[in-house]
């Protein structure tokens, strides 16, 4: 079993700092997703862990043993890791079984054991009837399962996955998510999964590391990212996050705060250490917004658009007090509202995004 300890990691290309002071400890057997927008440095972080790149600051340790630092570099082939790429990286001239067994052959595993491990790995990903096929005779999803079974057969302590579903259609992606979960349970490997798709990260990972412009901005369980985003970027990136300005925040020291949002008094959740502030950004989701009941404190708004979601409508409403502010929320299918209708919106359960550390 292998944990990964990353400390103060930095990497620049030319003058361009791509990974800045990243520290994180990935537990042995944990499934971690690294999530962020295009260009935030996710792939570079993965390449640093794999040993394809050398850091210019900080260190990476596997099971306590130094693998990378500015002055030390363990080559990729000496790191106990398997990699699943978005383009599968299978040998086209080899059969499925030969692809899966290749690394075992190179590392001198005897033929009998090799055959047994390959058969077992192919069975786990339900490809046992396809051992003699060539990769070109398989679908995209099947090829990705071959790549996974290669890591299973090799029994890698760490498996790195670089946007493995990027080339698959939406139905196959859902099926493959299940495949990754099964793989993780069967292998017990420590998994690091790179993606820009937040729903994939939230569905699969024990913890998600969110990166923004080369920095790790939050490393937490999916529910924590959703409920307690550390920055405005995380609040807007996770779920269908909405970020609103609030004023006159008064915290009670026990995780609750009062504030004004667009002139309406609201009760919010906040960190226990939160203090009184003149202004703050508030993170919300459509699920936190609903039609107010008569007499309830509310924001006046006007429906701009309704889109059918199957069983409900997603409504977008423009706030009267701030026409640039659009709030999205869900309306039951029977709701007798049309675009242009005035509504009163109640906001519940918003989160006071912590002030940035100086
Ligand atoms: P994407 O989701 O688009 O793949 P990413 O978050 O994985 O993005 P990286 O591929 O790590 O981001 O790239 C981060 C930045 O580093 C980009 O601006 C990229 O152009 C730059 N970069 C990556 N590799 C190199 C390299 N070998 N030489 C120079 N610049 C590089």
TrEMBL record:
SUPFAM superfamilies: P-loop containing nucleoside triphosphate hydrolases. The keyword Transcription does not apply. It comes from the Bacteria. One of its GO terms (molecular function) is ATP hydrolysis activity. Gene3D superfamilies: P-loop containing nucleotide triphosphate hydrolases (3.40.50.300). Residues 4-238 form the ABC transporter domain. Keywords: ATP-binding, Nucleotide-binding, Transport. GO terms for cellular component: ATP-binding cassette (ABC) transporter complex. The keyword Transport applies. GO terms for biological process: quaternary ammonium group transport. Belongs to the ABC transporter superfamily. This is ABC transporter ATP-binding protein.
């Amino acid at each position: 079993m292998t944990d990964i300890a990353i400390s103060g990691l930095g990497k620049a290309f030319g003058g361009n700092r791509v990974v800045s002071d990243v520290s994180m400890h990935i537990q042995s057997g944990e499934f971690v997703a690294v999530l962020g927008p295009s260009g935030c440095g996710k792939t570079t972080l993965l390449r640093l862990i794999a040993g394809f790149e050398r850091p210019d600051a900080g260190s990476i340790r596997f099971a306590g043993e130094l693998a990378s630092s500015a002055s030390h570099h363990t080559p990729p082939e000496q790191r106990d890791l398997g990699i699943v790429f978005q383009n599968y990286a299978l040998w086209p001239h080899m059969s499925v079984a030969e692809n899966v067994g290749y690394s075992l052959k190179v590392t001198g595993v005897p033929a009998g054991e090799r055959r047994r491990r390959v058969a077992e790995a192919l069975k786990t990903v339900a490809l046992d009837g396809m051992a003699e096929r060539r990769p070109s005779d398989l679908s995209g999803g099947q090829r990705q399962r071959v790549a996974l079974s290669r890591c299973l057969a090799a029994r890698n302590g760490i498996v790195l996955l670089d946007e493995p579903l990027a080339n698959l259609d939406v139905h196959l992606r859902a099926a493959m998510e299940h495949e990754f979960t099964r793989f993780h349970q069967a292998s017990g490997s420590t998994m690091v999964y790179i993606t820009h798709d937040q729903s994939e990260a939230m569905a699969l990972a024990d913890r998600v590391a969110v990166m923004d412009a080369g920095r790790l901005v939050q490393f937490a369980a999916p529910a924590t990212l959703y409920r307690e985003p550390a920055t405005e970027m995380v609040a807007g990136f996770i779920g269908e996050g909405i970020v609103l300005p609030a004023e006159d925040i008064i915290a009670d020291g026990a995780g609750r705060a009062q504030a004004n949002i667009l002139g309406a008094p609201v009760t919010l959740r906040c960190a226990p250490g939160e203090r009184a502030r003149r202004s703050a950004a508030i993170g919300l989701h459509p699920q936190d917004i609903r039609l107010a009941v008569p007499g309830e404190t509310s924001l006046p708004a006007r429906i701009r658009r309704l889109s059918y979601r199957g069983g409900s409508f997603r409504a977008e409403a423009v706030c009267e007090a701030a026409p640039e502010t659009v709030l999205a929320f869900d309306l039951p299918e029977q709701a007798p509202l049309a675009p242009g209708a005035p509504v009163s919106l109640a906001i519940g359960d918003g989160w006071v995004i912590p002030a940035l550390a100086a």
